[in-house]
Every structure is written in structure tokens, then in C-alpha cells.
Amino acid sequence: MLTLLFIICLFLVFGKLFVFGIKATWGIFKFLMTVVFLPLILIGLVVLGLIYIAFPLLIIIGIASFIVSRN
Predict the structure, then answer these.
(1) What is the per-residue pLDDT for 34?
(2) What are the tens digits of pLDDT across the range 10-59?
(3) Which of 14, 26, 36, 54 could staple 45 via S-S, CB 3.0–4.6 A?
(4) What pLDDT digit, counting tens, does each position of 47-57 carry?
(5) Roughly how many angstroms between the first and final C-alpha of the chain, as a whole number?
(6) Would you say 57 and 42 are in contact if contact means Cβ atoms under 8 Å apart?
(7) Is residue 44 a contact partner of residue 60, using CB atoms and an 8 Å limit?
(8) Please, which pLDDT band fits residue 70 given cuts at 50, 70 and 90?
(9) How many of the other CB atoms lie within 10 Å of CB of 50?
(10) What is the CB-side half-sphere exposure of residue 20 using CA atoms within 13 A?
């Protein structure tokens, strides 16, 4: 009986740690994408001469971030 209780508590604790790890990973991924990779991608597009793609992307992302920051 004590072993069963130990196994249940073990799954509860490590289940909560797993969920916390997934949430933390998602937050770090969003941060890296918005602060690091998105500007690098836009700069890369401009350097490669694809400013006709980079500029509309920049406008769309700017409008979307303005709308999301208002809510």
C-alpha cells in the first residue's frame, strides 16, 4: 500500500515538473523567436535583396504586435 502511494505521489510531482518544463520551454522559444531570430531573418532578407518581401512582413508583424499589445 505504501508503494502504491509513493508511485502516485511520484507521478504527481514529476507530472507537474514536466508541465512546468513545457511551459518554460514555450516561453523561451517565443522570446528567442521575437527578439533574436525574427530580426535576423528580416535583416537577411534585406541583405539578399528581398526587401519587397521583408517590408510587408515588417508591416504585418508591426500591426499584429500593436493589436496584441492593446489587449
Answers:
(1) 83
(2) 888 898 999 999 999 988 998 888 888 988 988 998 999 888 988 898 89
(3) 54
(4) 998 889 888 98
(5) 51
(6) yes
(7) no
(8) low
(9) 13
(10) 6
DSSP state letter for 37 = I
Q: What is the CA radius of gyration of the chain?
A: 21
Residues in contact with 18: Cβ distance below 8 Å, sequence separation at least 6, in sequence order: none
Any idea how long the chain is?
A: 71
Q: Are 42 and 53 in contact (CB under 8 A)?
A: no
Cα–Cα distance list, 22 to 3, 10, 37 (Å)? 28, 18, 21
Distance CA 59, CA 65 (A): 10
- Where helices occur in the chain by DSSP H, the ranges are 2-32, 38-47, 51-70
